[in-house]
Amino acid sequence: MSEDFSDIPEELYLATEAHVKYIQSLDTRKDEYDYWLTEHLRLNGLYWGLTALHLLGHPDALPRADAIDFVLSCQHENGGFGAAPGHDAHMLSTVSAVQILAMLDAFDELEKRGKGKEQVGKYIASLQNRQTGTFAGDEWGEEDTRFLYGAFNALSLLGLLHLVDVDKAVEHIAACANFDGGYGVSPGAESHAGQIFTCVAALTIAGRQDLIDKERLGRWLSERQIAGGGLNGRPEKKEDVCYSWWVLSSLEMIGKTHWINKSQLAAFILRCQDMEKGGISDRPGNMVDVWHTVFGIAGLSLLKYPGLQPVNEVYCMPKSTISRIFGR
Amino acid sequence: MANQGGSQHGIARTSRVRTEAQRQRDLERIASYRVLEDDLRARVKNPRTAYADRASAQHVFDLTTRLLRLNPEYYTVWNIRRRALLVLLPAGPKARRGDCCDRSSCSCLGETQPSHGCPKAGRSGTTADDAGDHTSEENDEEKKQDDEETEKQTRTMLQTELEFTIPLLIESPKCYWIWSYRLWILRQSISRLPVPVARGIWQAELALASKMLTKDRRNFHAWGYRRHVVAQLESDALGGGSMVEAEFQYTEDKIRADLSNFSAWHSRSKLIPRLLEERGADEKARREFFEAELDKIHNALNVGPEDQSLWYYHQYLMLNLTTLPPNNEHTITPTLPIEDRIAFLRNELAEIRDLLEDYDNVKLIYEALIDLTLDLCRLEGKRKPDEEEKENLREWLGKMKELDPMRMGRWRDFEEGLRREWGVEA
Amino acid sequence: MESLSDTLWDVVICGTGLQQSLLALALSRSKKKILHIDPNDFYGGSEAAFSLQDAESWVKGLTGGFNGFFKSATLVKSEGTTGLGPSRAYYLALAPTFIHSRSALLSQLVSSQAYRQVEFLAVGSFFIFKPAQDPCFRPTLTRIPSTREDIFSSTAVSTKAKRMLMKFLKFVLDYEESPQLEQWRSHADAPLTEFLGEVFKMDAELQTYVLTLTLSLDGNISTKDGLATIRRHLSSMGVYGPGFAAIYPKWGGLSEIAQVSCRAGAVGGAVYMLGSSIKEIETVQEDKLLRLSLSSGDTVRTRLLVRANDSSGFGLSISRLVAVVDSPLTSFFQPTVEGAPRPAVAVVAFPTGSLTTPAGATYQYPVYLSAHSGETGECPNDQSVLYLTTLSTPDSNEILQKALDAFLSTEEAQTSHILLRLQYEQSGGSTDLCAENCVITLSGTPLSLAFDDSTLDPVKEAWKHVMGEGAVESEYMNFPDREGEADEDEANE
């Protein structure tokens, strides 16, 4: 079904070429101080950039072999990945590594030249708190539903979900639910669109959508759209492009995307583009970054905005990748 | 992943092109940053030598200080700092008893590096370990002094660490890694210091969390952090007792300062079940409590009917009426008879309808009226709405469509549901 | 250094009241040659602040007629005043005016860096005085709720009234926009109370609440002016922190601003002479220059003279009563919301009709009382200063005394005793500026309890005259931080 975007003014269009160039330029900015200060996000950045490129229909805009080499160079003996060579292993970068390898259809390289899928699975499984079911980010870190989702995401892509106690984890998510239908970062915490995405996606991966109060959650999520078309992450807060993903994908997972105005949201995302130099920002007129760029594009893709590859709402990866891996 | 680090939030886009001088300055900054980074990486490449003795650990530690001031997002460097600190911290009296690696106080399972902090890495000498073998009074006295010295040293070091992060937090209040490091340091105080001392440190942390919430009332991290700190202060490990009354009052203060502070309303809803339980509230007390909360939210809605935060809390209170036994032990009035629930709902319908007299263009009022009407039908034996109610439902739904066309898809689904489940034809 | 008479001054400023002092501040980086004199031997003119001794000599001196804005001053210390501290422990302000957070005066103090020298205190709650219904009871004070949270917490108004207040608060924030504009335009010149009654269906009590926020001296402000004043109040709420809309400069209010401004003038090179008046003005060199004979015996030449119009008897006239009481009145100076600073000033309004004249008639104007805690530096910490103001009438002096007594019989203030009373009448200026033959005359500061931004306009006008063609609007009161500049200055010298 194609969506109706005819009320979007003509000067608002998707600046595909500019975005591709912007993403390609990200690794060439070595004379900028910020490039070095953000090395702890390198692997995540590669996932964000690569996903955006796949959705923009330019999957080869970054050289595949280089990307695989870089990912494998970040792996530790224990199977986990750091954000870049020399950085400690962490759940977030490990998930990004798995997602990149999945998109590049390169799990076999992980077996041949890396420490192997099984080892990655063991690393992730080692971060589960077997009492509560939730996950930590690393050997020191705090627990957060983000890490739980990350673990489910990567393990399911690797076909290793059985390494962890899925039921316990599901119990933990249920404990994070709030009366408004949403989910918080831990039991007792306020509902937040980002955490809702992680919980709903994790439940979807676990096949336990039955635990979701879809009516209430849908109401809460749909109220996130505010005047101007953008979405916020909590009541009485400002809109931000990244919620175009967290809120919209959650609505999609519970089948209620039509509860918000898609055309107004698409227009809001399009207004956040830097039409000249590429990239998308949090709000119109602000500085762009790759993070808002991928979630803006993924949002547009979920809205079925023309010219984009379809995105999978649970994994934030191309649908084609997910079908290839799960054979559906 | 929902990692916001490194992203640009709320910074205006500029078309500024760097001048050559600015580029050169960047290159210089990069060079000095990388020299520091390379130095640290070379030192920790071999963990066996990096933390082998106090001098090496101290060197590594000092490098992390410099690097983190330049880049507090560098999580690996925080980890290196932890490893170095575990060598530098004296093995305290608790540690000598072998519970420095006590996992019970850790909220995560992760701390797999305890060996660095165990007795063998104690102070420069071995007297402390040896002392345990003697029983003479003289030795006891010496041991006591040693313990005091150790405690003082530990406390100073942990305090210094907490202070180290303050300017970084002021600069980057939402940097996850700094908060994570702070919590780790705070946990060290539990395992390494006498309970009253550790408690003092955690209490100071609560004050910091309050200060942050005064600056940014809805800072998500700060609310979560506060909950965590309170939970620790209440724990046996810190010899604590319940703080639920104080925290409940805190939400009250926050709401009085800003009615739209949903974080505070939310926190309130989470504290109530415990509050009532700890007060040992009987049926009457619970009912009175519920009435007082209803009164409060009516008062709030009366001045802010367009405020979502208030309506969410209102919904929470309504759930108290509509959630029936046996699955309602966490509600405010679990034993409320069904007739009373119905009476409350009817009264509520009248209260909310009264708002329409002065605020007839607020969508959320119509939404609440529809919810209340259907709740009433459900409680009254899942009956169908009567003609008057049907008429009201149609009118209110029409108003919602008119006032909030953005969510038209939702209203259409709702309309369909009304027809199918409740026999309300459009 | 050149002598006074050798120098050709660009401007001689006579008087160190707020306006002249702000002019000195505005010119402080202009490199103009400025001689700043004052006939008084104290700074501040009509905005001065006094120790007890200074106040006594000011009262005595008033008969000498140095400052034509004031008359009928008396100062009475209560019998057996052991409670009074030493003279210097007091700093009684002639202009206890507070400043709304959104006032242009504050932005000018910030952009001119002068704010660094001033300590600002929060102005807290506004209360309404209600006479006792029955002689057996005490009169009461009710706090006026002026934010949504205030209205929410208030127990003084009914549920319905709260809605009206909320609607009005929302209305007033955008009152100049459509569709609000259409709602009040036809009422613009009618009394505000009438508009509130007709359009917002407010009862008399609610109207009083809103009217009090305007601090209107005659209690009969027009809808147009009233809405503007209330909007200023509401939009100022929370600007500098939670729970307050206005601030008060420590050490005598506007007196402190005048002194800080003069100090900036002196740092910029202006020459200051107190106790010097102009005896004679003579135009020389085909009206291009003035020759001034000063009471000090000096004769100076200047291109321009800026002075105050000190002829009294035009504009409004008010009666003031300043009382020092022996209680800290702590309950008035409580922060009302979490995170709010402790206020140093509270305001009590005695609405029209709440006081009666000696003849038993209802007094036709409101009375306002500003309570200042010791935090203002105006009295010791265990005492308070009460500044009462009302329009001058034959009864006003006695009415002020009655209001003071009534205030002191409320629950909150009942234990206090009066240690000292200073009473006087003051006439106000207008914002006109008159410039002819090298003489610019400022007409004085309008009388109001909250600072009136129109006070600033003639200062800027005068500045333009002095700067002539060199006047660049964007540079008015807009100075870089001196601290950052210091190195450069040294390098240049």
From TrEMBL, chain A:
<dbReference type="GO" id="GO:0004663">
    <property type="term" value="F:Rab geranylgeranyltransferase activity"/>
</dbReference>
<keyword id="KW-0808">Transferase</keyword>
<protein>
    <recommendedName>
        <fullName>Geranylgeranyl transferase type-2 subunit beta</fullName>
        <ecNumber>2.5.1.60</ecNumber>
    </recommendedName>
</protein>
<dbReference type="InterPro" id="IPR045089">
    <property type="entry name" value="PGGT1B-like"/>
</dbReference>
<dbReference type="Pfam" id="PF00432">
    <property type="entry name" value="Prenyltrans"/>
</dbReference>
<feature type="domain" description="Prenyltransferase alpha-alpha toroid">
    <location>
        <begin position="14"/>
        <end position="317"/>
    </location>
</feature>
<comment type="similarity">
    <text>Belongs to the protein prenyltransferase subunit beta family.</text>
</comment>
<dbReference type="InterPro" id="IPR001330">
    <property type="entry name" value="Prenyltrans"/>
</dbReference>
<dbReference type="InterPro" id="IPR008930">
    <property type="entry name" value="Terpenoid_cyclase/PrenylTrfase"/>
</dbReference>
<keyword id="KW-0677">Repeat</keyword>
<keyword id="KW-0637">Prenyltransferase</keyword>
<keyword id="KW-0479">Metal-binding</keyword>
<comment type="function">
    <text>Catalyzes the transfer of a geranylgeranyl moiety from geranylgeranyl diphosphate to both cysteines of proteins with the C-terminal sequence -XXCC, -XCXC and -CCXX.</text>
</comment>
<keyword id="KW-0862">Zinc</keyword>
<dbReference type="InterPro" id="IPR026873">
    <property type="entry name" value="Ptb1"/>
</dbReference>
Automatic annotation (TrEMBL), chain B:
<feature type="region of interest" description="Disordered">
    <location>
        <begin position="110"/>
        <end position="155"/>
    </location>
</feature>
<keyword id="KW-0677">Repeat</keyword>
<dbReference type="InterPro" id="IPR002088">
    <property type="entry name" value="Prenyl_trans_a"/>
</dbReference>
<feature type="compositionally biased region" description="Basic and acidic residues">
    <location>
        <begin position="131"/>
        <end position="154"/>
    </location>
</feature>
<dbReference type="GO" id="GO:0004663">
    <property type="term" value="F:Rab geranylgeranyltransferase activity"/>
</dbReference>
<dbReference type="Pfam" id="PF01239">
    <property type="entry name" value="PPTA"/>
</dbReference>
<keyword id="KW-0808">Transferase</keyword>
<dbReference type="GO" id="GO:0097354">
    <property type="term" value="P:prenylation"/>
</dbReference>
<comment type="similarity">
    <text>Belongs to the protein prenyltransferase subunit alpha family.</text>
</comment>
<protein>
    <recommendedName>
        <fullName>Geranylgeranyl transferase type-2 subunit alpha</fullName>
        <ecNumber>2.5.1.60</ecNumber>
    </recommendedName>
</protein>
<feature type="region of interest" description="Disordered">
    <location>
        <begin position="1"/>
        <end position="23"/>
    </location>
</feature>
<keyword id="KW-0637">Prenyltransferase</keyword>
<dbReference type="GO" id="GO:0005968">
    <property type="term" value="C:Rab-protein geranylgeranyltransferase complex"/>
</dbReference>
<comment type="function">
    <text>Catalyzes the transfer of a geranyl-geranyl moiety from geranyl-geranyl pyrophosphate to cysteines occuring in specific C-terminal amino acid sequences.</text>
</comment>
TrEMBL record, chain C:
<dbReference type="InterPro" id="IPR036188">
    <property type="entry name" value="FAD/NAD-bd_sf"/>
</dbReference>
<dbReference type="InterPro" id="IPR018203">
    <property type="entry name" value="GDP_dissociation_inhibitor"/>
</dbReference>
<comment type="similarity">
    <text>Belongs to the Rab GDI family.</text>
</comment>
<dbReference type="InterPro" id="IPR017230">
    <property type="entry name" value="Mrs6"/>
</dbReference>
<dbReference type="GO" id="GO:0016192">
    <property type="term" value="P:vesicle-mediated transport"/>
</dbReference>
<dbReference type="GO" id="GO:0005092">
    <property type="term" value="F:GDP-dissociation inhibitor activity"/>
</dbReference>
<dbReference type="GO" id="GO:0005829">
    <property type="term" value="C:cytosol"/>
</dbReference>
<dbReference type="GO" id="GO:0007264">
    <property type="term" value="P:small GTPase-mediated signal transduction"/>
</dbReference>
<protein>
    <recommendedName>
        <fullName>Rab proteins geranylgeranyltransferase</fullName>
    </recommendedName>
</protein>
<dbReference type="GO" id="GO:0005968">
    <property type="term" value="C:Rab-protein geranylgeranyltransferase complex"/>
</dbReference>
<dbReference type="Pfam" id="PF00996">
    <property type="entry name" value="GDI"/>
</dbReference>
<dbReference type="GO" id="GO:0005634">
    <property type="term" value="C:nucleus"/>
</dbReference>
